[in-house]
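Quick start: load a record and inspect it. Here is Cytochrome P450:
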Amino acid sequence: MEFQLPLQAIAVALLTFLLYEIWALRKKNSNIVKKPSSSKALIKPKYAPEPPGAWPIIGHLPILVSAKQPHRAFAALAEKHGPAFLLRMGMSPMLIVSSREVAKECYTAKDHVFATRPVTTAGKLMAYDHSVMGFTPFGTYWREIRKIATVELFSARRIGMLKPVRQSEVSLWMKGLHEKWVQNGNSSVSVELKTQLEELTFNLLTQMVAGKRYYGSNVAKADEKMAGLFRHAVQQFNYHLGNSEMYDALPFMAWLDFKGDAKAMKNTQKDLDYIMQTWLDEHRVKADQMRGDAINNTRDFLDVLVMMEKTGQFSSAIKDIDTTIKALALTQLVAGVDSMANTMVWVLALLLNNPEMLAKAQIELDTNVGKDRLVEESDIPNLNYLQALLKETLRMYPVGPLLVPHEAMEDCDVGGYFVPRGTGLFINAWTIQRDPNVWAEPDRFQPERFLTTNVDMDVKGQSYELLPFGSGRRSCPGVGLALQVMHLTLARILQAFELKTNPDVGVNLEECSGILLSMMHPLQVLAAPRLPSELYD
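Running the structure step on this input writes:
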């Protein structure tokens, strides 16, 4: 024991010396001008500005680690250094983009350059070694799984086939809340909407992915246990995804694993894989029993993927079909549960703080749908104010304010600056979507802007002022499904219930720290039905 401290000190000293040598060599190499291939190449490239204060070895990593809300920290840096600046995250350079013009350049003229994702510790340890779509490097495998997602899972036909699942889950949730009102003596019932919407979204997605329902009445004890395991694993996935910057900037830290984060990520992957494998085994047994028309009427995403396997539709480029199926299923869940639930919570919180807007949304529903039937997905195109509410919420509170990072696959110029191959790219959607040069009163919740001056803007990646789901070839393939789920859920909640909170206090809109832009505090409301009782059965 008496030799432990000296040995540790020696190890740390050797490690520090080694890191210094790596840094010095890197700095030396960065100053070496490559032999020019033409007279034009003699001009020293212009690099994006770097904020001062970078440390040896770790660079600007303290800025990211210390920032409770990185998107706001980056916005403040953009005010000083411009719409494109460079941060040194350990050994890796990262370009931070904060304007629609530069973002558009990255997603159009340079889209092919930034088509890949950086290798990350979280992607390796929790996402089947980057097999989950959001982590997958650009290449043949990514093209194949993107094609499967676009053609087989998120096609208009497939989304249409899942319409009864969406309607059923929302109706069951409404029925449960109505029953609580009855049990409360037909008096307004206190509800914590944040938890309620997380459970509803969880049921919606697990039903569409695997035909599973884990919350609500008539849920078996075994399913309750699985729900707890799964929900915790998804929460841990998102937590570690937002707290692994140090391991990506300094890869040796994952090997040393001082805080046990790498071990925790491996355990999270183990829990998620157990659930995915259980579902996959069950669906294979079910597929073996399918006959006739049942084969053509597959009910959920895993049904589709297992049937593709049985009929030999997977490309020869996919070597591990088991991992591919599990990764595709997991993609929908880790990308969808918190993002959709958080967005709907923000919508309702903002409406409760603006009761005149809440009344306007309900008047639109009463006028276009009435109170003698439930709103359907076919009604959504006529609910312009509801659509504007969701757009304005996604503008002010994008779930991922810093979009999923990209990486340059070759040297290029962006915003007039030279960007070397291997440079990471962060698009700060939060800053772009609150740019006062684009948006009038950008910090004010004003859905009407999408009915007048910004009526033609969409959230699907074609309007570079509004990028909650990204753009280009790496944009979210499930955006259409996500919008349908959120529109229907919000429409039915607003149509079916009167929602109130304490008018003297209002809803606290304080944000959580981390990569997901979620509300810190619970959303406690009083709910009472506003439709005939038979519509809740």
